[in-house]
Amino acid sequence: MRIFSGIQPTGRKHLGNYIGAIRQYVEGQDRGEAVYCIVDLHATCVAYEPAELPGYVLDTTAMLMAAGLDPEKCILFRQSDVREHTELCWSLCSVTPYGDLTRMHQFKDKGEGQALVRTSLFLYPVLQAADILLYDTDEVPVGDDQRQHLELARDIAERFNATYGDTLVVPRHRFPEAGGRIMDLQEPSRKMSTTAPGEEGTLLMLDEPKALEKKVKRAVTDSGSEVQRGREKPGVTNLIEILAVIRGVSPEDVESEFEGRQYGAFKGAVAEAVVDYLTPVRERYEEIRADPAGIETVLAGGAERARAIAAPTMARVRERMGIGPV
Ligand code: AQP
Question: Measured from the CB, is residue 95 less than 6 Å from ligand 1?
Fold first, then answer.
């Protein structure tokens, strides 16, 4: 069984990324052959700082290793080190309907208000499909926000197979049972994100304990005072889910524990749990990040192993599409 997932290079991963995706990556190492990619080419789909990008790749790699990814147990590499990703992206364009891409939420959200809407942003989901399909992936662990892109990747694989003959494995997604969409603490109607206008609602994995505590304590809570989930209580619901996931209990357990208690005591418990959860990762991160050459060695080794899987897939695709010499 092969597991694949990709993650954007930023030094600012948040609790949503950790709970929705990274936690599953770590667990995937023991369930199958796990392949994880830092998608630096995807980072160029919106305005970015070229001088900063290589460092962000190292930041993200260090973060994944600090969270528990072991290069001996998984393949960890940089997308741009394996040229087959861009080549397969182009090949998949031949079976991707233009209309499908115009319906992608992320394209609409991220393109809105940009002076330059890059063609690469439009093709983002096709490159993502290429990332996945290149590795004959069975399972893709991702957060809930990637649902639409994953459906598209499956459609693209099916369409390719129908057009050119059975070539690509059609992957299934794996969303976490709980915590697939951690919400912003200030605006709980939208997902926690690093591109939010302010940082108040985002619990960054590298935040110091004091900052984490402050953000949790200032999280918007809803009217009433009961620690109960409900459609009209999105702020409290989000905090209940965060605490439940971190403690490995059900949201009902959290509700019972805080029955009859005030928001203040509840938020104190959430803050403590978040700090205890993220502090060891931050400390390990500092150690790993202090050795950039060591991280580059991990990425180079990962790229070599990734290429060994990607090259035969791409050769198969070329042959089926009639590309190259007879
Ligand atoms: N709020 C979230 N809750 C649960 N899972 C989440 N993911 C992202 N946000 C949440 C999952 O994290 C994985 C890695 O995501 P990424 O690094 O590719 O970045 P992203 O999805 O673009 O997340 P950001 O940093 O918050 O950026 P924006 O603001 O651009 O969306 C993915 O599996 C994702 O599902």
Answer: no
The best mutation among 13, 14, 17, 189 to test binding of ligand 1, ranked by most ligand atoms within 8 Å of the C-beta, falls on: 17
Q: Is 17 in the pocket of ligand 1 (CB under 6 A)?
A: yes
In a domain, 184, yes or no: no
pTM, two decimals, is 0.95
List the beta bridge partners of residue 173: 140
Between CA 42 and CA 16 the distance in angstroms is: 19
Q: What is the domain range of residue 245? A: 209-286
User: Do 258 and 306 fall within a single domain?
Assistant: no
* pLDDT per residue as tens digits for the range 188-216: 999 999 887 789 999 999 999 999 999 99
Report residues of the chain scoring pLDDT below 70.
none
Q: In the sheet that 139-141 helps form, which strands lie side by side, from edge to edge?
A: 74-78, 33-38, 2-7, 139-141, 172-174
Q: Is 78 in the pocket of ligand 1 (CB under 6 A)?
A: no
What domain count does the chain have? 2
Report yes or no on 13 lying in a domain: yes
Average pLDDT, the chain: 95
39 C-alpha to center of ligand 1: Å?
13
Task: Confirm or reject: Cβ of 142 under 6 Å from ligand 1.
Answer: yes
- Taking only the tens place, the pLDDT of each residue in 143-171 is 999 999 999 999 999 999 999 999 999 99
E strand map for the chain: 2-7, 33-38, 74-78, 139-141, 172-174
